[in-house]
Amino acid sequence: MNWDQVEGNWKQFKGKIKEQWGALSDDEIAVINGKRDQLVGKIQESYGITREEAEKQVREWESLH
């Protein structure tokens, strides 16, 4: 997946993000606004995991969508 597609269609992807990472609040998802690095950071904070693990999760999610 091209991340530019996610940014351009953020409203459509917000639900998929919420399904995958349910600990993210609606406000956090709004702040992310399609920015990959913001998503990784919020996942890291919300789940208490390393940046590397958050990156891995996002890469796996990207490969599925």
Polypeptide structure, described:
This protein is mainly alpha-helical. The protein is 77% helix and 0% strand. It contains five helices and no strands. It has helices at residues 3-8, 10-20, 26-32, 36-47, 51-64. The longest helix has 14 residues, at 51-64. It is globular, with a radius of gyration of 11 Å. The termini are close together. The mean pLDDT is 93.
Question: What string, H for helix and E for strand, traces the elements in order?
Answer: HHHHH
Please identify the structural class as seen in this structure: mainly alpha
pLDDT averaged residue by residue: 93
Residue runs with pLDDT of under 50 for 5 or more positions? none
The proportion of strand residues reads under 5%
Shape: globular
Q: What's the total count of β strands?
A: 0
Radius of gyration based on Cα positions:
11 Å
Write the layout of secondary structure elements.
Blueprint: H1 3-8, H2 10-20, H3 26-32, H4 36-47, H5 51-64
Helix pairs in contact: 3-4, 4-5
Core attributes:
mainly alpha, 65 residues, globular, single chain
Question: How would you concisely characterize the structure shown here?
Answer:
This protein is an all-alpha fold. The protein contains five helices and no strands.
